[in-house]
Amino acid sequence: MRTGLTSVLSESAAELYERLIASGGLSLSDHPDLPGSAAARELIDKGFARERYVDRPKIVPVEPISAVDNAILTKQWQILDQYQALLRLRDEMQALQRIYLSATVAEEPRDLVRILTDPDEIGALSVELCLSAQHEVASLETGYFSRPPDPRSARGVPAEVLERGVRFRNIYAQAALEVPGAADMLRISREAGWQCRVYPRLPMRMVLVDERAALLPLARTGVEGALLVRAPVITAALRTYFELLWNRAISLDVNPAKVSPEQDQVLRLVLTGMTDTAIARHLGVSERTVRRHIQALLAALGVTNRITLAVAAIREGWAD
């Protein structure tokens, strides 16, 4: 039996279809039970066979090319039905989401500080907080990981959250850009709607939502436990701390009006204090290429070393 048939037909229907192809059709007088069999009904319903009553009544096969076109058309209609069902489900979930958000905002927190130790609960709560944001999500990302990060795990931003006008900002520690896959992770995050900057060193991770809740790690990686803080005085202090870091962090937005996009990327990573080796690893290029870009930047700004390069770049408005 051809295995491709069983991807669209049951095994019994596939066997019957091959018999029909080999024989040119089966007479109903010789096989009186055939029209009522499940295999025959499946073939007819899916467009692989038909009943013919000219001369001797028969069940005959549909030409294989036409049969597979029928199968494709049937599958397309099924996918369309499933897609429309998902759209209806999404509309229903959005209505429930609005009810959920209104209840979440109105609810007075019972525990101003709570310790969490279940990694699954911590991850779910982090997502839930971001989805419930009304104004802004601010986060810090260090270079401490329990295992190398997967770029596919980069946090996306649901369209309905962006439609509410929620702003997403993230500050990466310099060390976070030096781990394998960091460039892809950063690219995916920015494409998803995050504004990203880099700061030389960060002492901890953090997720701060609307200045009403913050999630802080109890250890470096954050998987050992976390602290959920809803105390307004503490979340306000964390907001001030984040803004101080944000104003001093280096933006990763490209400014093509000044230099080439490649040179702009190198310049911004130089400003974070990264070495040529770390920059090359992050961008996926050779150290020679990095040094060539740095020399071009030095010549363009009329300076001779990295220290004066940073000063001149900021003075000339080449970097935020």
Structure description:
The protein has 320 residues and is α+β, with helices and mostly antiparallel strands. 48% of the residues lie in helices and 15% in strands. Helix 6 (182-191) links the parallel strand 6 and strand 7. An eight-stranded mixed sheet has the order 4-10-9-8-5-6-7-11, with helices on both faces. The model has no long low-confidence stretch (mean pLDDT 79). The protein has three domains: 1-107, Arc Repressor Mutant, subunit A (Orthogonal Bundle); 113-251, 2-Layer Sandwich (Endonuclease, Chain A); 261-315, Orthogonal Bundle (Arc Repressor Mutant, subunit A), CATH 1.10.10. GO terms for molecular function: DNA binding. One of its GO terms (biological process) is regulation of DNA-templated transcription. InterPro entries: Sig_transdc_resp-reg_C-effctor, TrmB-like, Tscrpt_reg_LuxR_C, WH-like_DNA-bd_sf. Residues 252-317 form the HTH luxR-type domain.
